[in-house]
Specification:
four-stranded mixed beta sheet, alpha/beta, 40% strand, 2 helices
Length: 122
């Protein structure tokens, strides 16, 4: 139902490097780049994620209660992306593990403080 999610950044180059390294092993790449907004995904129109410098030219800040969740193909993929995020400098918001029957997830905050979940259902 959701076409894409966008998070703000105060350092686009640093964020691009972070997300290329984090999402690349899971089949995602840059699929759109305006110089102010960079979109990642497997192909246009299919579960995309973007980072951008805010249009209003104010500093990017993380939203309280805002989170983007990346659907992963397995529990092992959740473990891998969670560990890679921390290795790249992300902050731990909850180690990967079982959260509820059939829901396995790990939580982290990116370099700008935005909150993410990597999860697998099943």
């Amino acid at each position: 139902m959701v076409g894409y999610a966008t998070m703000g950044t105060n350092d686009l180059d640093r964020s691009v490097e972070f997300y290329e390294t984090l999402l690349g092993p899971h089949g995602c790449k840059q699929i759109f780049n305006t110089g102010r907004l960079v979109m990642f995904g497997k192909e246009m129109g299919d579960g995309m994620f973007a980072i951008c410098q805010p249009f209003n030219q104010e500093p990017a800040t993380p939203g309280n209660g805002t989170m983007v969740a990346f659907s992963m193909s397995s529990k092992e993929s959740v473990d891998q992306i969670y560990a890679k995020a921390l290795e790249l400098g992300a902050a731990d918001e909850g180690a990967a593990g079982d959260r509820a029957p059939g829901f396995y997830a790990g939580y982290f905050r990116d370099l700008d403080g935005n909150k993410f979940c990597a999860f697998h259902m099943g």
